[in-house]
Each structure stands twice: as C-alpha cells, then as structure tokens.
C-alpha cells in the first residue's frame, strides 16, 4: 500500500523519524508577544524558550489551516492523518474540513483523520502504529480499527519542571504557584479518555517526580512487552536518557524511543519538561 502519514507539528520526531519519507507535517503557529513563529524545521527551540521566559504574556498557538492540510493531501498515496487532541487544538477540525473539500473534486481519494486524543510523542506513536500495520499488509479498514483501539488504550503523561506558562495563562493561581515553586512541587499531568489534560498527582522534587512517573507506567500500563514507549523532552536530553534507563530496568517494552519537542510541545512542556506515551 502506497501511503502518506500527515501529522500536525505536535507530532514530535528525532533524526531517524525525520528521514522517513512517508511522514510529513502541517505546521501550527506560535506567537509570543509580537513575535510569530511557524512551527517547522526552521524554528529554533532555544530562541522560543528565551522569549517565553522574558515575556509577561502567555504564548498563543494557532492550528494549521484547512489549506495547509489540503496541500499535503495531494498525490496518489492513501492518506492517514494524525492530529493533536481535538480538545486541545483546532487541528483535527481543520484536517477534517480539508478532507471534505478535497473529496469534492477527488472522490476516489482515500483520506482518514485520526484524533490522537494526545499530543507530542503520543501522536508520534500513533503514526508509527499506522506504518507498522501498513508493513503487515493490513487493509484500510483494519488499519482504522486497530489504530482506533490503540488510541483508546494509549496513556500519556507530562512532567512539568516550570509552571511559568500556566501562571501567565491564568491556568494556575499565582499564590499556589509560588508555594509550589518554593517547595519544589512538580506536577505530573496526564491525558483523559476524552483527550483533555488532568492533574494526576504532585511530587516534591524532580528526582521523586521522575521515580513516580516510572511507577505510574507499571500501575496504569498493560501488556507492556507488546508496546513501544515514547519519551519527548524539552531541552533536557540527559533527563530523558536517565528516564529511559530506569524504564529499561523495570519494564520490558518492545522499544523505547526518545524525541525532542518541536515548537508546540515546547510551549506545552516548557523548559525541562518531559512527556511520555505508551
């Protein structure tokens, strides 16, 4: 099957994944104050982090337009799209609208849009699952059914090092945030079944938070030996590598991949943030 996997730019990758010609991304946009970024290969993460830290306003994001997806739907390939959770972004709606527009003129084209109910490396794992099923010669309907099951079963967790963006956006009380910072409280966030974000629990100190994150994998995961776990890091590769080592000691995943956050995930996770999905 000749296919193309299209993600939005929250589909975080590493050097190896960027070499896969079957994957292409539609960029979201990020604004910090008066500065606007397109979340593509030209975005410099360090510049974005510095601007967010200096700005007293929260960063804002905008989903790809339907036209951004339309351009990427062109070609002879079957198209599978993976987007950010529809509860977090308009990316899914743009991709679905673009599908309707495209099929008005090309009724024989195959396009299916998946709502990942996740973000960052969660999207990445969904994309890799599609490629795996294509390699196994699964038919279109089999791919849709099995990927839907995969998304439903997937768990996503975020470990935040900085609360700055949450404070600026008014998502957390400033007094509570100051107390959390003073006592080195690190929130562990997680996805819900509907693709929203919840507070899972709070840990005191980065080391305890990482250990607790590893514990949660065993407490909430099943059939780990059949799965890949993905780790996305925001400017903290050594932390991600330590987490990978701890996971390998405790669990027998089929594989462990590390990716770096692109622009949108950098906004979510902020400097030092970690996202895992499995």
TrEMBL record:
NCBIfam families assigned to the protein according to its UniProt record, in alphabetical order: DegV
Protein name (Swiss-Prot/TrEMBL): EDD domain protein, DegV family
Signal sequence extent: none
Keywords annotated in UniProt: Lipid-binding
Keyword 4Fe-4S attributed: no
Organism from which the protein derives: Paramaledivibacter caminithermalis (strain DSM 15212 / CIP 107654 / DViRD3) (Clostridium caminithermale)
PROSITE patterns with a match to the protein in the record: DEGV (PS51482)
Statement: the UniProt record of this protein carries the keyword Cytoplasm: no
InterPro entries attached to this UniProt entry: DegV, DegV_C, DegV_domain_contain
């Amino acid at each position: 099957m000749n296919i193309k996997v299209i993600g939005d730019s929250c589909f975080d990758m590493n050097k190896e994944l960027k070499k896969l010609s079957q994957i292409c991304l539609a960029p979201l946009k990020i604004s910090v104050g008066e500065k606007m970024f397109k979340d593509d290969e030209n975005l410099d993460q360090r510049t974005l982090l510095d601007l967010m830290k200096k700005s007293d306003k929260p960063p804002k994001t905008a989903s790809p337009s339907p036209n951004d997806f339309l351009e990427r739907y062109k070609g002879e390939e079957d198209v599978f799209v993976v987007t950010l959770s529809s509860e977090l972004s308009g990316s899914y709606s743009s991709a679905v609208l673009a599908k309707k527009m495209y099929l008005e003129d090309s009724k024989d084209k195959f396009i299916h849009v998946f709502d990942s109910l996740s973000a960052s490396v969660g999207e990445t794992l969904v994309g890799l699952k599609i490629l795996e099923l294509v390699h196994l010669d699964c038919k279109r309907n089999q791919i849709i059914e099995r990927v839907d099951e995969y998304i439903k079963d997937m768990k996503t967790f975020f470990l935040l090092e900085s609360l700055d963006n949450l404070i600026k956006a008014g998502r957390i009380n400033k007094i509570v945030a100051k107390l959390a910072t003073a006592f080195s409280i690190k929130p562990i966030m997680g996805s819900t079944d509907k693709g929203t974000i919840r507070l899972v629990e709070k840990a005191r100190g980065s080391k305890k938070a990482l250990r607790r994150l590893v514990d949660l994998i065993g407490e909430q995961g099943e059939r780990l030996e059949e799965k890949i776990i993905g780790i996305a890091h925001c400017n903290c590769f050594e932390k991600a590598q330590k987490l990978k080592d701890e996971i390998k000691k405790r669990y027998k995943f089929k594989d462990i991949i590390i990716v770096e956050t692109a622009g949108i995930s950098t906004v979510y996770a902020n400097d030092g943030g970690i996202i895992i999905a499995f």
